[in-house]
Each structure stands twice: as structure tokens, then as C-alpha cells.
Write a structure and sequence with these properties.
The chain is mainly α. Among the domains are: about 1-30; about 65-230, Butyryl-CoA Dehydrogenase, subunit A, domain 3, CATH 1.20.140. It has helices at about 30-60, 65-80, 105-115, 120-125, 135-160, 170-200, 210-230, 240-255, 270-310, 345-355; strands at about 1-5, 10, 85-95, 100-105, 205-210. A hairpin with a 6-residue loop joins β1 and β2 (about 10). The radius of gyration is 55 Å and the shape is elongated.
Length: about 350
């Protein structure tokens, strides 16, 4: 059961008409205009929010040369791990032969060592009788190197997600790059300790390589680019009125502004003014066309009436001139009095004979 939105009458199931039985209100079209304008305003505001987000996303990646350099630096921080930071050689003497396995400390080298089981074997030496200072230094090197890898992944992720917040994400990226640079220095120191410990070890042989210097340069470059963007900002280009509409939309969502109190359009721009002018021109053209068609129809109907009332002769009747007075009508003829009939000789003779008789 529902009620009429205007008079509040309860409508039952047998009230199948589209109109209220009491007030005659169209239940389907009631409040249509208000709802239409409300939805139009919400569509205008919500569309501006997405436009601002798309503009921020575009500016985050290709907004300027510095944003492109940031992505390049983020990729370089991971690509630098292909360079070996250190070299490790495992020597295990057996009865008949000596087993030797070399393992470069790099991204590709650690993946290869994990695949063939060499890395797992080296990590399981904890608590073994063969465990020595060389194995402990190697485990510390792996831990420091892994921290640098995590920092590089963080730099890449924060660079990709920078559109979330242009200002705050640059801080996070710079901090991640600084942490990676510190990790590279620590890893280099541990690599030196590892190389010194391997000189006294019978089963391990290690040396320091140039890979950590490449990683350090990549982190410093990424940090410098992030700091520059943090200081100068990312230039984003927005359409006219988009930022204002997005701010109004947030206020409407928070309940600070009523959508019904806003004008239509919410923010007037050059585009909306152009549309309004085109609509006004179209309406003016429709009015002129309707007026012209109405005048033409009236002329046609008037011409038809005149044609029906026109005389058969083509030449119009001459009207009497004002100078000449109209001709006097002839007097009506009066009937002449009947003259007495003249007596004929025959009639007089007959009358004389009748007298004599």
C-alpha cells in the first residue's frame, strides 16, 4: 500500500489508475522536474571528480619530464640488482673429487642458486659442525641485500601509486630511496667483512663486486627526482570548473551543502555558456519557424474565405462617384382610371327599339 505524494491519500491495490482519486495528481510524473534537475546536478559533480582523478593520473606519469624520470629511476633501482654485489664460491672436498659451486650475489644469481638448491644448502649450515664465520657473514650479506631489494620494490610501487597523493607519495618514495641507499652502504660493509672471513675459511671463497655501487647510484637518482617533485610539485592540467565541482561534490557527500540549493549548472564555465547560447538560438529558431508557419496558415485560410465570397464577374461593379448624385428613381406608375366605354350605333339602336317596345 502506498500514498499519494501530494494529498497523502492511501492507495489500495484496486487503484490502478495513474492519477490520484482525490486530487487527480499524476503519480508517475509527480516531482519529475525536481528529480531530473537533482540527478543532472549530481551527474555534473560526480563526473568532475572522475575527471580530476584522470588528470592526476595522467600528470603523475607523463605530466612533465620529471615524472617520466621518476619512472625511469624506479625501474633502474630494480634493474641495478642484475649487477653482482659479491661472488661466493663453495668448495666441498669429497673422497675422490672436490665439489665447487660459484654463486654471484645478484638478483639473477640468487634465483639460480635457489633453483638448483645451492642457496638452500648454504642457509642450512646454521648449527652445523661445518658452520663458520664465513657462513655467518654470508647470511648477514643476504639479509642486507634483501633489505635493498625490498627498498627498490617500495620505490617502484610508490612511483606507480603516486597519483593517490602527489605530495605525500613523493615523501614516501624519497624515504624508500634513502633507506635503500643506506642498505647498500651497510651491504657493502658486510660484503667486505664476508670477503675477509672467506680468506680463513676452508669451504667458502668470496670477493666484493661493483654491483652495490650501481644500486647506490640508482637509489640516489630516484631520491633526487622524488625530492625535486616534492618541492616543486607535479603540474596537473584541469578543465575549467572541474576543481570547484569536485570540492562541491565532497561537501554534498558530507552533508554540508544541499543539492537542491545549488543552481543548474552548478559551476558556470565557457562550455556551459556556449551550450546555453546554442539552446537559446535553437529555441529562437523554433519560435520563428512556428510563427512563420502560423502566419502562412492564416494567410491561406483568409485567401480561401475571400475566394468563396468573391463575385462571379471579373470586373468589379462601378461605385457611384461622390460628385455626381445618384440618379433619381422614376416615379411609380399609378393605374389609369378606366374611361367609360363609348356607345356604338348598334347599341343605341337596340336601346331605342327596346323603348318602343
Amino acid at each position: 500500500m502506498s500514498t499519494c505524494p501530494k494529498c497523502g491519500r492511501k492507495l489500495h491495490l484496486y487503484n490502478l489508475s495513474a492519477y490520484c482519486p482525490d486530487c487527480g495528481t499524476n503519480l508517475i510524473m509527480y516531482g519529475f522536474e525536481e528529480d531530473f534537475y537533482r540527478e543532472a546536478k549530481m551527474a555534473e559533480l560526480s563526473q568532475s571528480v572522475w575527471s580530476v582523478r584522470i588528470s592526476n593520473l595522467k600528470a603523475s606519469f607523463i605530466g612533465s619530464k620529471w615524472t617520466v624520470l621518476r619512472l625511469v629511476a624506479a625501474v633502474l633501482t630494480l634493474a641495478a640488482f642484475l649487477a653482482p654485489a659479491a661472488n661466493v664460491a663453495l668448495k666441498l672436498p669429497f673422497v675422490d673429487t672436490v665439489f665447487e659451486k660459484s654463486l654471484p650475489v645478484s638478483g639473477l644469481g640468487l634465483y639460480t642458486g635457489f633453483s638448483d638448491g645451492t642457496l638452500s644448502y648454504l642457509l642450512t649450515m646454521v648449527g652445523n659442525s661445518l658452520d663458520s664465520a664465513g657462513f655467518s657473514a654470508f647470511r648477514a650479506l643476504l639479509f642486507a641485500y634483501g633489505f635493498c631489494v625490498v627498498a627498490a620494490v617500495a620505490v617502484l610501487l610508490t612511483s606507480i601509486l603516486c597519483f593517490v597523493s602527489h605530495k605525500h607519495m613523493q615523501k614516501v618514495t624519497a624515504c624508500a630511496a634513502a633507506a635503500g641507499a643506506v642498505g647498500c652502504l651497510v651491504a657493502f660493509i658486510v660484503a667486505l667483512v664476508f670477503a675477509g672471513a672467506c680468506k680463513k675459511d676452508l669451504f667458502l671463497d668470496g670477493s666484493v663486486s661493483f654491483g652495490l655501487f650501481v644500486n647506490l647510484a640508482a637509489f640516489l637518482f630516484a631520491g633526487y627526482v622524488s625530492l625535486h617533485l616534492w618541492k616543486h610539485g607535479i603540474p596537473a592540467t584541469y578543465k575549467e570548473g572541474m576543481v570547484e565541482r569536485a570540492a562541491i561534490y565532497r561537501k554534498v557527500k558530507k552533508g554540508e551543502v544541499d543539492i537542491n540549493d545549488l543552481p543548474q549548472p552548478v559551476v558556470e564555465t565557457a562550455e556551459t555558456r556556449k551550450i546555453a547560447e546554442e539552446i537559446a538560438k535553437a529555441e529562437q529558431g523554433m519560435l520563428e519557424a512556428a510563427y512563420a508557419s502560423g502566419v502562412q496558415a492564416n494567410e491561406m485560410s483568409f485567401g480561401a474565405v475571400v475566394t468563396e465570397e468573391a463575385p462571379a464577374e471579373d470586373t468589379p461593379a462601378e461605385e457611384p462617384s461622390a460628385e455626381e448624385p445618384p440618379a433619381a428613381e422614376p416615379p411609380a406608375e399609378t393605374p389609369a382610371e378606366e374611361a367609360p366605354a363609348e356607345e356604338t350605333p348598334e347599341d343605341s339602336g337596340e336601346e331605342g327599339q327596346d323603348g318602343e317596345r
